[in-house]
Design a protein that fits this description.
The protein has 172 residues and is of the alpha+beta class. It has one domain: 3-Layer(aba) Sandwich (Aminopeptidase), CATH 3.40.630. It has 5 helices and 7 strands.
C-alpha cells in the first residue's frame, strides 16, 4: 500500500469534522455513557474547536490517502500545544485513526513510521501519546512499536473521568 499524506488546512475543515466524528464514534461510543459521550463529541469535534486547532501553529492534522481514498488521519502537537508540558524536544500524537473499512492493513504502523520520520527530521528526542487504559489493543500496538508507559493523566469524556496511559518512544 502506497500511502500519501496531506496537511490539513481550513479548506479541509468539514472533512476533518466528519472523519474525526466517524472514527471516534467507531472506536469508543460503545464503551461510554451516551450522555457523557455526546457532551464530549459536541465539544471536541465541533467546527469551532477544530478550526481553532487548525490555525494553531503548533498543531498539525494530516489526512492519509491510499491512492484517492481517504483512509485515516492523525494529529500532532508540538511545544506549548502538547496536552502535557513536556518541552520543545518532543511531539505528541494526540490522534491517530484509520477508518473501519481500512483496518487490518497495517496502515496504523505506516502512520507511526511517518510520524517517527518527521520527529527525526525535526531532531526531536521523543514521541509521546496518551492512550485509554482500557484500550488494550492500542496499548499492545504501541508497546510492539517500542513505546513504554511513563505516567498517566486524567481524560474526561463528558463528566466521566477516565485514565490515559502516557507512553513514549525515545528517538535519541
Amino acid at each position: 500500500m502506497n500511502l500519501s499524506y496531506k496537511i490539513c488546512t481550513l479548506k479541509d475543515l468539514q472533512i476533518l469534522v466528519e472523519i474525526s466524528i466517524k472514527t471516534f464514534v467507531s472506536a469508543f461510543e460503545k464503551q461510554n455513557n451516551p450522555e457523557d459521550f455526546k457532551t464530549y463529541m459536541d465539544n471536541a469535534f465541533s467546527k469551532e474547536k477544530l478550526k481553532k486547532e487548525l490555525i494553531d501553529e503548533n498543531t498539525s492534522f494530516y489526512f492519509v490517502y491510499n491512492e484517492k481514498d481517504l483512509v485515516g488521519y492523525f494529529k500532532l502537537n508540538e511545544k506549548e500545544s502538547q496536552t502535557e508540558p513536556l518541552g520543545n524536544s518532543s511531539i505528541e500524537i494526540e490522534r491517530i485513526y484509520v477508518l473501519d473499512e481500512f483496518q487490518g492493513q497495517q496502515i496504523g504502523k505506516q502512520l507511526l513510521f511517518k510520524i517517527i520520520e518527521k520527529a527525526n527530521q525535526d531532531n526531536l528526542s521523543f514521541i509521546w501519546l496518551g492512550v485509554w487504559e482500557k484500550n488494550t489493543a492500542a496499548i499492545r500496538f504501541y508497546e510492539r512499536n517500542g513505546f513504554v508507559k511513563f505516567n498517566t493523566h486524567p481524560y474526561y469524556i463528558g463528566n466521566d473521568k477516565q485514565t490515559d496511559w502516557l507512553m513514549r518512544l525515545d528517538l535519541i
